[in-house]
Design a protein that fits this description.
The complex is a heterodimer of chains A (301) and B (383). In chain A, 35% of the residues lie in helices and 13% in strands. Chain A contains 13 helices and seven strands. Chain A has a seven-stranded mixed sheet, sandwiched between helices. In chain A, 53% of the residues are buried. Chain B has 383 residues and is an alpha/beta fold. Chain B has two domains: 187 residues, Thiamin diphosphate (ThDP)-binding fold, Pyr/PP domains (Rossmann fold, 3-Layer(aba) Sandwich), CATH 3.40.50; 117 residues, Rossmann fold. Chain B is built from 15 helices and 17 strands. In chain B, helix 3 packs parallel to helix 5. The radius of gyration of chain B is 21 Å and the shape is globular. Chain B starts with a strand and ends with a helix. The model of chain B has no long low-confidence stretch (mean pLDDT 96). Classes of the chains: A alpha/beta (301), B alpha/beta (383). The interface between A and B is large, with 40 and 47 residues. Strand 2 of chain A pairs parallel with strand 10 of chain B.
Chain lengths: 301, 383
């Protein structure tokens, strides 16, 4: 994959996750069909990767559902968790770290609902880490999307359990001394039956993986790497939103080679750089869901 | 229709929950409440009802709230340390107006404390344990029979007023066995959840109050699309920091629990002519009753005000009681929690001599009667 093709939508024909749509004939306002307009303006910063991922979610939902009456979105606390309020569905903005506990109760109470959990790396892996591994172990039929921007954005850029070693944050002024979690591998080890990873610079790939996660029966988990420009980018002098997207692109060796001569990224080489992360579906298996084991399907009292 | 059985307090709680239509329990093991979970683990599965043991008490309360939003009558049961972990979600349930029932079988604290000894140390935790100003309802059964009937009442209040309702009783009541009339609750005793009165439309207001000041929030998955949040919100359910709207919301949430005072009345024992008034709840009310009888035999005009409702505090009844009495003795198994509230309500109108005992054993009738005699002697000797 060359840089040019990575950064531009594919010109006709199905690209990675493109679902056959051509850029010349975009679905008119597909992304806006399920947007809760009363909640606008949104609170995401300019350049934030969350908006790209959220738009891809809306696009995927618009292609899949006529209405979201039977879809619930459950989120915790943080920048990523805020986006559920912008979806015109049953939306539940819970407490910090606990969306999976609410979602587990909701799904078992009403198994016919599609339940999507939106969480962040602080919400899902730090304060809510215990709930994440137990939700994966139970294999409740939930789809969990974890926006990983490697930092606490909403509270002002503090260290997260996903912050790469050496990176600067407001609570690691001398550089992060700790090692980050590999969220996807953690969740796979805990028993999730669908685990995938995407990144905000390839929203079409995320869209496809999100739809596959929705289709999967059991606990599905999509980690999506996004960028916090305001805190992670600024504190580590990594540039603006576009520069951070370039840094994601560098995970792909060919693009990295292409980018080697780019002056804007020379700085980056001297700074902590993310390890190369494997993208796509990382694990897929099948075992009974908790709802099945509890004989809850079609058994509403 | 009813049957009479010799059962334990915790079993009576589980039976009351089932009679009240509870179809979702999430909990985490903790002494001395575990029998409730164990009983419901046997009884709930099948017929679409759910029992789930969660990874901790925080998760238990989260699951209860999620299930309640899914339309279930949902509950959890715990003891002091677990109740502490549930506080954030209790606050969430209050603000987001999600019905739920929380049973707290009190043990000695603080910390791990006395896991299998009785105490009444969670009275103020039930009131103020979660941050912010929060109205709350807490019931205090004084017998195994009342554990059964007040668990049913807890569900009625929770559903009708869309708020968490806490049932506080101690280890002795939880583990004691008594004959219980397992009456089938009537429709009125079961009550129903406040919900929307109109079909969904784009300008639908899930947090608009009904005539009782209770938000008309629908269940998820019933054709309504709306937002639920722990942020301060307007009637649309959307976050707001409008000071006026926030103040109105907090006032409404406080007012809406007031019907609990009329619904859960106190027991007045030999109070007609009493000038010495004992005030107690839970297990202590039983020995206080015996103390009243002892004192009456000695010619002391003693009586007992036994409350079944701790929060909201029955302030009018207590104020009137304190005005008419010469001596008021609040007896409780803590270092003075409800007694401070009674002192506030008395406003200096009568002599107060609380009897407080926190150490893991129940207050006996003899020691309480002796405390009353001593207090009377001191009152007479005082200049």
């Amino acid at each position: 994959m060359k840089l040019e093709s990575a950064l531009r939508p594919p010109a006709g024909g199905p690209g990675p996750g493109g679902a056959g749509r051509s850029p010349e004939e975009p679905e008119p306002s597909a992304e806006k069909r399920f947007l809760r307009h009363g909640m606008m303006p949104h609170m995401l910063c300019p350049g934030c990767g969350h908006g790209i991922v959220f738009e891809a979610m809306l696009r995927a939902l618009a292609g899949r559902y006529e209405s979201l009456d039977e879809v619930a979105f459950v989120a915790g606390i943080g920048c990523s968790s805020r986006v559920v309020g912008y979806v015109d569905a049953c939306t539940l903005h819970t407490t910090h770290g606990r969306p999976l506990t609410f979602a587990t109760g909701l799904k078992l109470a009403r198994p016919e609902l599609t339940v999507v959990v939106v969480t962040g790396d602080g919400d899902g892996l730090s304060i809510g880490g215990n709930h994440l591994i137990h939700a994966a172990r139970r294999n409740v039929d939930l789809t969990c999307v974890l926006f990983n921007n490697e930092i606490y954005g909403m509270t002002g850029g503090q260290l997260a359990p996903t912050t790469i070693t050496g990176a600067y944050t407001s609570t690691s002024p001398a550089g992060n001394a700790e090692s980050p979690f590999d969220a996807a591998r953690l969740v796979e080890a805990a028993g999730a039956t669908f685990v995938a990873r995407a990144q905000s610079y390839r929203p079409r790939d995320f869209e496809e993986l999100f739809l596959r996660a929705l289709d999967h029966k059991g606990f599905s988990f999509v980690e999506v790497m996004t960028d916090c420009t305001e805190y992670f980018g600024r504190t580590n002098r990594l540039g603006n939103g576009a520069d951070l997207l370039f840094s994601q692109a560098r995970m792909e060796p060919e693009i990295d080679a292409d980018l080697a001569g780019r002056p804007t990224l020379k700085q980056l080489a001297a700074k902590p750089v993310r390890p190369v992360l494997e993208m796509g579906v990382l694990h897929e298996s099948n075992r009974g869901t908790l709802e099945e084991a509890m004989h809850l399907l079609g058994a509403r009292s | 229709m009813s049957e009479r059985q010799l059962i334990q307090g915790n079993e009576a709680c589980a039976r009351g929950a089932l009679a009240a239509g509870c179809s979702f329990f999430a909990g985490y093991p903790i002494s001395p409440s575990s029998e409730i979970a164990e009983q419901l683990a046997r009884e709930l599965p099948g017929r679409g009802a759910v029992f789930i043991q969660m990874e901790d008490e925080i998760a238990s309360m989260g699951a209860v709230l999620g299930a309640s939003l899914g339309g279930r009558r949902a509950m959890t049961a715990t003891s002091g340390p677990g109740f502490t972990l549930m506080q954030e979600h209790l606050g969430y349930a209050s603000l987001a107006e999600i019905p739920c029932v929380v049973i707290d079988v009190m043990r000695g604290g603080p910390s791990t404390g006395l896991p299998t000894s009785p105490a009444q140390g969670d009275v103020m935790q039930a009131r103020w344990g979660s941050h912010g100003d929060r109205a709350t309802i807490a019931l205090a059964p004084g017998s195994v029979q009342e554990v059964y009937s007040l668990t049913i009442e807890a569900f009625r209040l929770a559903e009708a007023l869309r708020t968490p309702v806490v049932v506080l009783y101690d280890e002795v009541i939880g583990h004691m066995r008594e004959g219980v009339e397992l009456h089938r609750p009537t429709k009125r005793q079961l009550g129903r959840r406040s919900g929307p009165k109109a079909a969904f439309s784009p300008d639908f207001l899930p947090y608009a109050p009904d005539e009782n000041g209770v938000a008309m929030v629908p269940d998820f998955g019933c054709g309504y699309r709306f937002h639920v949040t722990g942020l301060m919100h307007d009637e649309r359910g959307y976050p707001t920091s409008d000071h006026h709207k926030v103040a109105q919301l907090l006032e409404r949430l406080e007012r809406k629990v007031e019907p609990a005072v009329a619904a859960v009345s106190p027991e007045r024992y030999r109070l007609e002519d009493a000038n010495v008034v004992l005030v107690a709840y839970g297990i202590v009310a039983r020995t206080a009753r015996a103390a009243v009888d002892l004192l009456r035999e000695e010619g002391v005009r003693a009586g007992l005000f036994r409350t079944r409702l701790l929060w909201p505090i029955p302030d009018a009844a207590l104020s009137a009681l304190c005005r008419s009495a010469d001596l008021v003795v609040v007896a409780e198994m803590n270092r003075g929690q409800w007694s401070l509230e009674v002192e506030r309500l008395a406003g200096g109108s009568s002599l107060l001599a609380p009897y407080l005992k926190a150490g893991g054993s129940v207050i006996t009738a003899a020691e309480l009667a002796e405390h009353v005699r001593q207090s009377m002697r001191e009152a007479v000797a005082a200049p």
